[in-house]
Structure formats: structure tokens, C-alpha cells
């Protein structure tokens, strides 16, 4: 008759999926409010934007696919709230073809309405252009040469904000929200060659690599994954979906740690010489 | 909530649940959603490139603004379609050579100037005045980590003796980096699931279903 560890070792993986789903569903419905500490990198990003003079012009890039929205959209929304609250003017664009420009449009318009901001005067969505390296290089000399019109097809010459923004020299800060390698090029091309300060909010998967850029001073602040988004929401005192998601995040991590511990105990017990299965594992 | 908003929410919920159903077992709902996603992505991408690149940056500038010199990149682009012909595939190499040459030039400068030199310089700063003892210890760790990891990737001499010991320290740093990456990756993947469950709970159940029933 199989023991408890044998049963655990052969458990149907779908029970683990079910446990994970429960561990996320439960805190999504019932709020626990686990604490979220502010990291140095998130504070650095917040301070850099906060220190800019009111009415500064910021470039905000939506370099992420819809699949990464859960992590990245709260970062974009929090940044937009912070910038609009300081009456900053925002130029958005996307280097991601699938959904990027549409998310830039919808997200910016939603937050702009909260602050009664006017399209064309307070913010502009340039949309998408293929080949992001060429786009980043080209905007250094002329944004209009790369984006002759905005996302809706209006010529840039008809948008009051774009009359003030010709190239990177007119931009005070570039805030990149990304789920891919475009951040590397915003740093290695735009920051390194043109000296524009770059801050970023990235998905958790790409966050570890970005810490090197913060340490070297090439990046001014960093938000890593949903945790980073939650930190920024706390910094602007507007707790939203990322803060709500952190309860589920913490609970899911507890579940994974529990499963890892159980799995390792099981492995040691079963690989003992008197194991019922008797298979020595490497 | 309008009919159109209800429809959008229900369609999204259907697609999410169909794709999640694969976790139980492969099925027709999953396959349908997967094919819809692949087809939609390809169609959307083709339309977007046609509008934002071919029309806005080639056709309009040539015929409206009179920039006829753009005919040359246009021809290079058309040559790429020679790959569809078995006999004339070689023609596309002209365009590819242009792309590879210009890309190599741009990347070489940006990577050397923006990444290699800057990151190397970041390991060569003074240990003093870096924010106290703890910061100095961390800076020493960075320097030791960079050197030992580079030694691990030095394969021109057998990893024995002092070289081998240094390389083993490098492996420790690499393993810790992998651990950090894996931890962040788990967090990222869980976040994606949280996003979908938040949609199902707040928008589908809490929004659409409750307003309908």
C-alpha cells in the first residue's frame, strides 16, 4: 500500500493548478492588505519625475504586448497620474505592433479624463512605427520625419504640443514601460548617445538585468513587475490594481514555497535506502 | 453598460477560459482560441505595417511630397519577395546584405558605447564615498562577481588550480543570478495569471454578469 509521500509524488498536476488558482482567487476577492515596501529604485524613479519642473515634456513609451498588461498597465497608469497631476505634457508612442498603440491610446485617454487634459495640447499619441532602432535614432534629428502624423492620422503640425517638440532636445525625461528588449536600446542609443534621462518600468522577467543599468547610472530608477507598479501606486497615494494584485501575488508565493518544501522533503524521504519505491535519485 | 461592452467582456472571458481549459486537457475550445489568436495577430500585423510603413513612409512621401529617392529603399524591400522564388532567391541577398551591414554598424556603436564601456566603467569606480561600509562591501562583491564570472567563461586554459578555484567562485555568482532571474520569472508569470483572474472577477463576474442577472 503506497505511503503519503508516494501519493504526493504521483499527484495529478491539475490539483496543483487548482491550488494555485485558489491561492490567487481567494485574495482577489477578499482583501488582506499585505504590506508593500518601497524599494530604492522605485523611489529614485518617483523622485526624478517629481523633481522635474511643472509643465515639463515627458515621453512615455508603451513597449509592451497586451499579454503583459497585468504588470505593465498599472505602471503606465500610475506614471500618467503622477505626470498629469504636475501638469506635465506627455508624448506617447509604442514600439510594439500588436496592441501597443491601442493600449497607449486607451490608457492615456482614461487617465487624461480624470485630470481634464486635452488631446493635442496636454498629450499626444504618436502610435507605432516598425524597426525601433531606426525609430529611436531617427527621432534624435526629427520626430516628424519618423511620425509624420499621430496615431489618428492628424499631421503633427496641427497638434499644438508637437509644435514645441521637434526632437529629443525638447524632451525632459523618457519613461519606458516595456516587457522586452527595447529598454536596452532606449539606454544604449537614446541615453548613451543623446544624454536624455531614461527611467523604466519593466516586467519581472526582465527586471534583474535592468538593475545593472541603475547601478551604472544609465537608468534613473526602475519598477520591477507588479511589485514595482504597486510601489509607484503607493508613492503617488493612489492604490489601484497592482496593490490589489500584490495580495494574490504574496499568497501565490506562499503556495509555491510550500510546494517546493513539500517536494524537497518528499524527494529526500523517497531517496532514502528503505524507500518503498527504492529508486535512488540523483 | 452597452450591448457592445457586454459582448467584448464575454468574448474575452470565453477566450481566457478556453485557453485555460488546456490545463485540464487539450480540447476543441482551446484549439479554436489558439487559431483565432494566431490568425488575428498575423492579420493585424500585416495591416499595421501596410498602413504605418508602406503608406506613411513610402507611398505618401513619394507621391505627395515628391521624395522620389525613396524608390531605392522601396526596390530593396520588393527584392525581399524574391525569396518566394526558388530560382531567384539570390536576389533577396542584396537587400539582406544592406540590412545586415547597416544593422551591424548601428548595433556595434550602440552596444560598445552604451553597454560595454558604460558597464565596464561601472565596475571601476572608487570604493570610497559610496554610501558607507555596506555599500562598499556590495561594490567589492560586484567587482569580484564580474572578474570571477569572466574567468569562468575563459576556456583557453584548463580550469585547474587558482584558475579553477576562481571559476568555481564565478559559478556561485552565476547560480545566484539564475536564482534571482527564476524568482522574478515566477513573479512575472503569477502576475499574468492574477491579471486574468482580476478580469474574470471584477469585469466579467462583478461587472457584466451582475448587471445582466
What can you tell me about this protein's structure?
The complex is a heterodimer of chains A (282) and B (213). By secondary structure, chain A is an alpha/beta fold. Chain A has twelve helices and six strands. Chain A folds into two domains: 4-30 and 246-270, no CATH class; 40-239, 3-Layer(aba) Sandwich (Rossmann fold). In chain A, strand 4 (173-178), helix 9 and strand 5 form a beta-alpha-beta unit. In chain A, helix 4 (69-85) runs parallel beside helix 11. The longest helix of chain A is centred in the last third of the chain and has 30 residues, at 241-270. The model of chain A has no long low-confidence stretch (mean pLDDT 92). By secondary structure, chain B is an all-alpha fold. In chain B, helix 5 packs across helix 6 (161-212). Chain B is extended and about 70 Å long. In chain B, 7% of the residues are buried.
Please supply descriptive tags for the structure shown above.
heterodimer; A: 282 residues; alpha/beta; Rossmann fold; 2 domains; 12 helices; 12% strand; elongated; B: 213 residues; mainly alpha; 3 domains; 6 helices; extended
Helix content of chain B: over 70%
Largest sheet, strands/sense/barrel of chain A:
6 strands, parallel
Shape of chain B: extended
- Beta-strand level of the residues of chain B, as a percent range? under 5%
Round the Cα radius of gyration of chain A to an integer and report it: 23 Å
What's the helix count of chain B? Answer: 6
Seen as an oligomer or otherwise, the chain set is heterodimer
Mean pLDDT of chain B: 91
Most extensive chain contact? Answer: A-B, 53 and 44 residues
By helix and strand content of chain B, what is the structural category? mainly alpha
Overall, the morphology of chain A is: elongated
* Strand and helix order of chain A: HHHEHEHEHHHEHEHEHH
The N- and C-terminal alpha carbons of chain A lie at a distance of: 25 Å
In CATH, what is the class of the largest domain in chain A? Alpha Beta
What low-confidence regions of chain A span 5 or more consecutive residues with pLDDT below 50?
none
